[in-house]
Amino acid sequence: MTDLQTLPPSAIDLLSALDRSLTLLAVDAPRHALAQAFHGRGLVVVHSMGLGAPLAIELLNGTPDVDVELLAHGGVQTMAPGVAAIGRRATGAFEASSLDGLLRGLGVGPLVVCGSDATGAVVASVREARLRGFEVLVVEDAVAPWDDARRARVESWGAALISTVDVLGRLSGVA
After folding, report:
1. What pTM was computed for the model?
2. 128: which residues sit within 8 A by CB, 6+ positions away?
3. Cβ neighbours of 118 (radius 10 Å)
4. Number of domains in the chain
């Protein structure tokens, strides 16, 4: 993990541009504190849920007002203003989903990514986002499991790494 003073220039540039175009992509992490912080500041939050995983279905079924059938058929559900849920059948959040179109339609900027990487979903989602031209910040202490191999992989694709403390600190300055 790194602190703000030692972030690479790409991460500093992305954080300096922190505004209403910043979006949180929470991969298999429906109740994550970062999602609450982004939503509380009026920033876009997209929950990407792997529908092939029994745990994801269990989590979604336990969440009020989630239309599991809609998500299972590729739909996007608005959970609250600026908060959407999208189902996915592939490992990454973009493959075989409408996420790319959703994000471009919203005119979002850099993606801040967190979540569960037990199945490789976070790493795959970062790769897919970078291939589609999105700037990506990975909140490395908000991805589990996380190790040197995953870190090296996402850095090699041009994603910047940041900590939860740094993201929340910067968000406190967003009106």
Report:
1. 0.79
2. 92, 93, 94, 95
3. 13
4. 1
